[in-house]
Structure formats: C-alpha cells, structure tokens
C-alpha cells in the first residue's frame, strides 16, 4: 500500500492537478467546457481509485488499513477516520468555497447523511471489539471472524467517502465542482508537502528527557 499511495500522490501532483488548474484558468468564467470537464472527471476518478485501492488493502489486512498505515504523514493522522479522511472533511472543504444557498442546502443534506452514518459505523466497530474482548477473556476469540468484521467496517467507511464525494460533485456541477476538486487535491497534497511538514515538526514538543 505504501508504493500504491506514493504513486497515487505522484499522479495527483502531476499531471492531474496541473491539468485541472490549467483548465480552470483557461475556461471562461463559470463555463464547463470539454477540457475542464475531462480534467475534473479525471481527478474525481483518481480519488475513487484511491478508495478502491484501500478496499483491496482492507481485504488483505483490514487492521492495518483501519489503524492508518505507515504510508500516512504525521500531519495527516488527525484528519483520518477508519483509514482515510473523515467524510465531514469533504463537506467542510466545500463550504470554504462560498457556495450559493442552493449548494449550501445540498451540502447540509450530505452532512445529515454523514451524521447518521458515522455513528452507525463506529458502533459496529465497537461491537466487534467488545465481542472480541469478551471471547478472548472467556478462553479464545475467533480472530478470523473479527478480521472479517473489520474488513466490512473498512469497506463501509470507504463507500461512505465515495458516495459523499460523488454527491458533492454532482450537486456542484460544472465549474464549481472543478473548484472543489482542485481544493481537495491541494489539501491532500499539503499533508505531504515537505515545507508544511517542516513547520509541523517545528511546532511539536521535543521528546521528554
């Protein structure tokens, strides 16, 4: 997964994000021409491919995916939920673009879905953990069954992320969707930017002696 994620970031950094920026810069204000449509669709598909990759990893090692693998940057960790960005980060990022009242209403609907879904997924994970602990104390937990439930939790979490992105892009449509995808790409890449990580390290407390 480390190699996959590094390659995924590299492709997002170049050529996908520069192509999207160039299409935004050369499009008529608010227009949705073919170059912009193609560039935005490619970025959205790239994020969907990332979550499909996480699905594949979860089927092999769900515990590592849920716990955030070692391919994550230290700055990225606070933004993760069950292996990747929290779905509400997507709606929060969308709101920074000063959307119209119509789009804000659409984002509110997506947020309500997130608020209903996230606790349900978290409760499913909690129940799996409690069952494992109880069985282990009683004499031996079914590790295979526990990992199977972890896999299901990871897949549900990724499906929620995929659906939220698709709903936001569809609600925004056209030029606004492209702006959102450009902002999302910049945010994700900033979590791995050497200069940002250097500033992050400078703010961390030194190890206790």
Automatic annotation (TrEMBL):
It comes from Eleusine coracana subsp. coracana. This is DOG1 domain-containing protein. GO terms for biological process: DNA-templated transcription. Residues 1-201 form the DOG1 domain. PANTHER family: DOG1 DOMAIN-CONTAINING PROTEIN, PROTEIN INAPERTURATE POLLEN1. GO terms for molecular function: sequence-specific DNA binding.
């Amino acid at each position: 997964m480390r190699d996959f994620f590094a390659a995924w970031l590299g492709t997002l950094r170049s050529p996908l994000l520069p192509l999207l920026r160039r299409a935004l810069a050369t499009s008529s204000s608010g227009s949705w021409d073919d170059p912009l449509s193609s560039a935005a669709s490619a970025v959205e598909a790239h994020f969907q491919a990332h979550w499909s990759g996480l699905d594949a990893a979860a089927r092999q090692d769900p515990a590592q995916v849920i716990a955030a693998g070692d391919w994550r940057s230290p700055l990225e960790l606070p933004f993760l939920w069950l292996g990747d960005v929290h779905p509400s980060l997507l709606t929060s990022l969308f709101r920074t673009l000063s959307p119209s009242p119509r789009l804000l209403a659409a984002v509110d609907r997506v947020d309500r879905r997130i608020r209903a879904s996230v606790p349900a997924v978290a409760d499913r994970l909690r129940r799996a953990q409690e069952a494992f602990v109880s069985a282990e104390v009683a004499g031996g937990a079914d590790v295979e069954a526990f990992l199977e439930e972890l896999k299901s939790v990871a897949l549900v979490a990724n499906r929620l992320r995929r659906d939220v992105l698709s709903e936001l892009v569809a609600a925004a449509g056209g030029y606004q969707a492209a702006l959102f995808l450009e902002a999302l790409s910049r945010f994700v890449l900033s979590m791995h930017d050497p200069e940002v990580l250097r500033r992050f390290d400078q703010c961390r407390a030194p190890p206790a002696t």
